[in-house]
Write a structure and sequence with these properties.
Elements lengths: L4 E5 L6 H15 L7 E5 L5 H11 L4 E4 L16 H6 L4 E4 L2 H7 L3 H13 L3 E4 L5 H5 L3 H12 L3 H6 L14 E5 L5 E9 L13 E5 L20 H13 L2 H4 L5 E6 L7 E6 L1 E2 L3 H5 L20 H5 L19 E2 L4 E2 L2 E6 L11 E3 L6 E2 L3 E3 L1
Helix pairs in contact: 1-2, 5-7
Length: about 375
Amino acid sequence: MRKLMIAGNWKMNKTYTEGVVLAQGLADALKDAEVKVDVVVCPPTVDLKGVSEVIDQASAPFALGAQNVYFEESGAFTGETAPNMLEAVGAKYCIIGHSERRGYFGETDEDINKKAKVLMAHGIVPISCCGEPLEVREAGKHVEFVVDQIKKDTEGLEIAKKYNLVSAAGTLDGTQAKTLRLSDGTSVKMRIAGFRQDERADGSGKAGTTLIADSTVGERAVSDSGNADWGSSTLRSWLNDEFASELPDEVASKIVEVNKTTTRATDMSSQETTADKVWIISYSELVGTLDSGSYRYSIYTPEGAQYKLFADLGCTWGANSEHYKVAGGIGRWWLRSPDPLDASCHIAPNNENGAPGYARNCAVSSGVGVVPAFCL
């Protein structure tokens, strides 16, 4: 389970002296305490230096955060604070996109985008705020509104930090997830697998966030008729049609069709690219790069880079792992990859021992589950 963080935003309160006194009091109060969360204090800009000195001198168990930053490194920007100035006084975090900044000062998602990038370039973690107005919530459009903010605000990891979807270190561990209620009455928990990794099928650039289920959603063959390329497989058709139609409307409307590259089962020397709304991940997207120790090393062609979730969890091709197991009670789960050792089979990790490299005949319709993925 990821470590939680508590950040105190002092807003426009406390003079320099009052801020130092408050910080010292907090340091004294926590001196012998067992602090099980990350603690951050965010005083006004004029208090940062004094509070930073308290933290250093008292070895305080909390970090320093700022309340705002400007996205330029220097220049004629009266009243603003550059990121290197925050870095110089010891700020490790910075609040951006607060509703008060958006509402009173007209900051936009694009402004927050620039701020997140410049902070991270200086090693400062953005604490990026998001949310919807009351009227949006009451209209039931809150998910759509927040997803739109995600797309506009930042790229890649910055998106995750804005929504606290990764740890302060920027990692994924599988707990960053959302449970979706399907139209057939069942539920599926979708884990965040990565950010801006998949290419949009329309050629407009990277999609935002990739999600993968933490359980199977049923048992199906990859291809009912036997050996078939992913593009013509019955499983791909089912995922993009029937399963996609079962997703909540507010999610389905935001799914981005992306390009997926897959080795052809009918010609293992070539690959195809398909435009998919929903898919299953490939062997390389799960285990990463193979090395010479793998018996598939010289014959397997990668079908996409390893997703951040599995990279952060330390998953490799050469070791069994609990992270290769999914819920649902089915013994195996399909990957998109035909097995280069036998094109009639697809690679299917073993839920019993967490081995990622098992394979099953692609026409098998029982004992192998489907773990869907999609992009927003």
